[in-house]
């Protein structure tokens, strides 16, 4: 491994935690399973993200759509205003996010072994930058190696964003690993670019059939460092 790039949301930190805090503040739906609700909202967000990127959907409309539709799957109906207030607090609670412990250990290990690092993340520039700053990632990863889709006008799984990342670290595709939780955006995108992949599947998502295979799959939050350490050290 000469370089490793990371996704941000639910890869560097536990995105369910601020979602749970906002949900419990605004809704009294004790019969709604929280993690399936969260994963459903993420899926809905991914499905319409391209509309936000090309200006066909306002970011607030997307935020409202994903939580309203996710709750509708569980036979719950909320107003537009309730969805907006939920999103506002969801973002407020994200101001207290911290990296997964295994992520910190991996970042330190890569620094010690002179492995180049970077980030590729889909999302609005200001919003993603704020999360990256809160996580303190620039203590390990140079700002110039942080790629945010809305800033470069191309998003995962488009291979062009991975090619841009290659130019940042001056490595060929077969020497780069990508760590992410989304099979569609992270694993398929990186594999199509010729990268090696670590699917951080701690939410136990289903693999899309007849697509690609990840080089490594991790289904536990506390196994990322253990697996990645072997790759970094070549053991």
From TrEMBL:
<dbReference type="InterPro" id="IPR036412">
    <property type="entry name" value="HAD-like_sf"/>
</dbReference>
<dbReference type="InterPro" id="IPR023198">
    <property type="entry name" value="PGP-like_dom2"/>
</dbReference>
<keyword id="KW-0460">Magnesium</keyword>
<protein>
    <submittedName>
        <fullName>HAD family hydrolase</fullName>
    </submittedName>
</protein>
<dbReference type="InterPro" id="IPR023214">
    <property type="entry name" value="HAD_sf"/>
</dbReference>
<keyword id="KW-0378">Hydrolase</keyword>
<dbReference type="InterPro" id="IPR051400">
    <property type="entry name" value="HAD-like_hydrolase"/>
</dbReference>
<dbReference type="Pfam" id="PF00702">
    <property type="entry name" value="Hydrolase"/>
</dbReference>
<keyword id="KW-0479">Metal-binding</keyword>
<dbReference type="InterPro" id="IPR006439">
    <property type="entry name" value="HAD-SF_hydro_IA"/>
</dbReference>
<dbReference type="GO" id="GO:0016787">
    <property type="term" value="F:hydrolase activity"/>
</dbReference>
